[in-house]
UniProtKB/TrEMBL annotation:
Designated name of the protein: Central glycolytic genes regulator
Domain CggR N-terminal DNA binding: 28-96
Keywords: DNA-binding, Transcription, Transcription regulation
One term of GO molecular function: DNA binding
Keyword Repeat set for record: no
Domain Sugar-binding: 100-349
């Protein structure tokens, strides 16, 4: 332990020395890191498009990409720029360094302390590009999820864009399988199949080499249908798995946006806001103190179950979700949050 501590201390000391001796190093390093990240996600991409996204002059971009090409990090063809294998490995290595370089470890500790939760993982921000933020936060959450799997586990998954990004960015490890069962924690919501909890659960299970159960039920149904549906053998089997969930990974949504997505009329949405609802998760609307304002009528994970879980991972992207994240953090101190840098900084404000 002492050796690891000294190693970390040396890295931090080196970074501080670099900042003092080469004050413009931070700006140059982050700029080239961002260029490499963008090429990775948008490849093949042209210089003009890259210049437009980063709001940097095309002349400057030309010089930067030439340097990256000369280092073997990218290749430039007629259809645009692409990252090489060396570039991908370099990007992976830079992730840790940039995280320390930007002081995000301190930010993580401050946010976790403020929210009074177990852990916060902050993914370095870049430009105001939600698509890339979703991909990178999803990838980080997926890696953390794999590291937290212990033996045979039942993992619960919710739907939504953040969870869809997690499933997409999760890598399948050759020759390695996890003995897990992945189940949707709630029913389906919306018409976008890729963001349905069933689709996401199946994709994550396949990448983990585990099995999955599908939940053939919408997330908001008529209360009168609940008793009949609960008795269906297929639904009953999945509900039994949901009650045995050992790890939950879920996306956090703003109450107003999720209410509209669920098809609530304007007056109902306004009513939620007037009653103080700021967040939504797995079918519940909460106020800033984590108190339930409204529950969607459905079969799935209960709030009591959520509060008792020891392994629970929340994922959120965007500074506009700060209030929602603070709200959810009141529910379970065992919560681990994976967020982007903009959201983390907004919470500290």
């Amino acid at each position: 332990m002492k050796k690891a501590h000294n190693s970390l201390f040396d890295i931090d000391t080196m970074i501080e020395l670099q900042k003092k001796i080469i004050p413009d190093l931070h700006e140059i390093l982050v700029e080239r890191y961002n260029i490499l990240r963008l090429i990775h996600y948008y490849q093949p991409i042209g210089r003009r498009q890259l210049s437009s996204i980063l709001d940097i002059g095309e002349r400057v971009i030309r010089g930067e990409v030439s340097l990256l090409r000369d280092q073997g990090l990218i290749e430039i063809n007629a259809d645009g720029m692409k990252i090489t294998k060396i570039g991908e490995n370099t990007l992976e290595g830079l992730n840790f360094f940039i995280h320390r370089f930007k002081g995000l470890r301190d930010v993580e500790e401050e946010v976790a302390k403020k929210l009074k939760i177990k852990k916060v993982i902050v993914v370095p921000g870049m430009i105001q590009d939600e698509e890339i933020a979703l991909k990178e936060v999803g990838k980080t959450a997926a890696n953390y999820l794999k590291n937290m799997i212990q033996g045979k586990m039942i993992i619960g998954i919710t739907g939504g864009g953040t969870m869809a990004a997690l499933a997409e960015e999760m890598t399948k490890e050759q020759g390695k399988s996890y003995d897990v069962v992945v189940v949707p924690a709630r029913g389906g919501l919306g018409k976008d199949v890729d963001k349905q909890s069933n689709t996401i659960a199946a994709k994550i299970a396949n990448k983990l080499g585990g099995t999955y159960k599908l939940f053939y039920m919408p997330d908001n149904i008529d209360k009168n249908l609940l008793p009949t549906l609960s008795g269906d053998p297929m639904i009953k089997e999945v509900v039994e798995y949901i009650e045995k969930i050992q790890m939950l990974i879920f996306g956090i949504g703003r109450a107003d946006k999720m209410a509209m997505r669920r098809g609530l009329n304007p007056m109902e949405v306004q009513g939620l806001i007037e009653n103080g609802a700021v967040s939504e998760a797995f079918g519940y609307y909460f106020n800033k103190n984590g108190e339930t304002v409204r529950e969607v009528s459905t079969i799935g994970m209960s709030l009591d179950k959520f509060k008792k879980l020891e392994h629970i991972i929340g994922v959120a992207v965007g500074a506009d979700k700060a209030e929602a994240l603070v709200s959810i953090s009141n529910l379970n101190p065992s919560l681990v949050m994976v967020v982007d840098e903009n959201l983390a900084n907004q919470i500290l404000k």
